[in-house]
Write a structure and sequence with these properties.
Elements (H helix, E strand, L loop, with lengths): L1 H15 L9 H9 L5 H12 L13 H15 L5
Length: 84
């Protein structure tokens, strides 16, 4: 049952993420699909994930690293065919 729910959520995110520009622009995806604003450092992290195979972030506690990681995980699943 939980698998059906997860599959439904993924399908909905993929449907809402059909715009091809979202595959290379997680900042726009977060804004348009999730309604989330990324502040400048979060946007820099997000674009680093697009442009690089590895991204490391050093910062203080409470800067939003976990939030951007969660958004990027959802973006990745929503903009790619995870079943290939």
């Amino acid at each position: 049952m939980i698998d059906n729910v997860i599959d439904g959520v993924i399908a909905d995110l993929q449907r809402r993420s059909a715009n091809s520009r979202y595959a290379e622009d997680p900042v726009a995806w977060a804004r348009d699909v999730l309604g989330k604003h990324m502040w400048s450092k979060q946007a820099e992290i997000a674009m680093s994930v697009v442009d690089n195979t590895h991204t490391a972030v050093v910062s203080c506690n409470g800067a939003g690293k976990s939030a951007v990681a969660g958004i990027l995980g959802a973006w990745w699943v929503a903009t790619r065919d995870v079943y290939d």
